[in-house]
Amino acid sequence: MNKTTHLNQLNEEQLRALVVQLQSEVQKKEQTITTISLENSKLKQEMSILKRHKFARTSETLNPLQRNLLDDLVNEDMAAIEEQLARHEQQLQSQANEKRQPKRASLPPELPRIIIHHEPTDTHCDCGCQLKRIGEDISEKLDYIPGTFTVERHIRGKWVCQSCETLTQAPVPPQVIDKGIPAPGLLAQVLVAKYGDHLPLYRQESIFARAGVEIARLTLADWVGRCGVALQPLVDAMRESLHQQTVLHADETPVAMLSPGKKTTHKAYVWAYTSTPFAGINAVVYDFAPTRSGKHARQFLQDWNGSCGRTLENDE
């Protein structure tokens, strides 16, 4: 089986076969490493014994001829052991390098492909004969096209009765911002960029300008506020779901707040309330508090705090 085949292209049986094959290869390599490690330990022990024989005081009781003969034998054995150890260490190092070497993953097959053909400008050989195509080499490169703006043109047809002249027209589709220009996809992009990617609105303004669309920063801020109002029912529903949990985690993060009419900022807090990893719902609700007073947490948990057997955990 080709190991470079993307996993998404394999069926269940092929995936099972691949797992069995990989497990077998890992087991064989582990056995090889264990064997080499044991041999290394044995050889090092033998070398230690030979060194003790070579440099021990008992060698002084031998006559010069015996000492020379023993030294020659010990030197030969030590040289052979060192050579064998070097081979084993080199083999272990090559296996370690093979494990560390990253393998290039195949590009996801679900991505759209743009086919670019590269063919000779002339399909005639220098000898004058016609060339015949016998195959091809294929390579893939990953490219990225920045977000592209599109314009939705909504056309609502007007229909009139020829008899009574009653006018009929489809209603305007509901929008997040009535009579505004942003479609839901653009609003989602602004919110995800701001809160998910931490991209400030002034940077988004410049990015949109490079794409040829001028959207003022104040307009983007207005969109963010209107989306917050539109999402409030979802936040309330998530809060009600958290109130059904017996254990909640909470943590506060300080933020700088500039009050109207003030020249300096003061410390405000954003509280995060979430369920445990073992709960049936995975939700996080953020609540802004102008101070660190406990009344803000009590207000958020007013329907939950008085329930029996409830636990609120904090990092303090």
Question: Biggest sheet, strands in spatial order?
Answer: 5-4-3-6
**Any low-confidence stretches, pLDDT <50, length ≥5?**
1-5
Computed CA radius of gyration, to the nearest angstrom: 37 Å
Q: What percentage of residues falls in helices of 4 or more residues?
A: 40-55%
Q: What is the H/E order?
A: HHEEHHHEEEHHE
Give the DSSP E fraction (strand runs of 2 or more residues). 5-15%
Number of strands: 6
Give the biggest sheet: 4 strands, mixed
| Average pLDDT, all residues | 81
Treating each run of at least 4 consecutive H or I residues as one helix, how many helices? 7
Q: What is the 3D form?
A: extended
Task: State the secondary-structure class.
Answer: alpha+beta
InterPro entries: Transposase-related, Transposase_IS66_central, Transposase_TnpC_homeodom, Znf_dom_IS66
Keywords: Coiled coil
Pfam families: DDE_Tnp_IS66, LZ_Tnp_IS66, zf-IS66
Protein name: IS66 family transposase
Describe this structure in words.
The chain has 316 residues and is of the alpha+beta class. Among the domains are: 17-93; 181-242; 244-313, no CATH class. It is built from 7 helices and 6 strands. It has helices spanning 12-55, 64-100, 184-196, 201-210, 217-243, 294-300, 302-305, and strands spanning 158-160, 167-169, 247-257, 266-275, 284-289, 311-313. Strands 5-4-3-6 form a 4-stranded mixed sheet. It has a two-stranded antiparallel ribbon with strand order 1-2. α1 (12-55) runs antiparallel to α2 (64-100). It is extended and about 125 Å long. Mean pLDDT is 81; it is low at 1-5. InterPro entries: Transposase-related, Transposase_IS66_central, Transposase_TnpC_homeodom, Znf_dom_IS66. Keywords: Coiled coil. Residues 122-165 form the Transposase IS66 zinc-finger binding domain. Residues 12-46, 71-98 form a coiled coil.
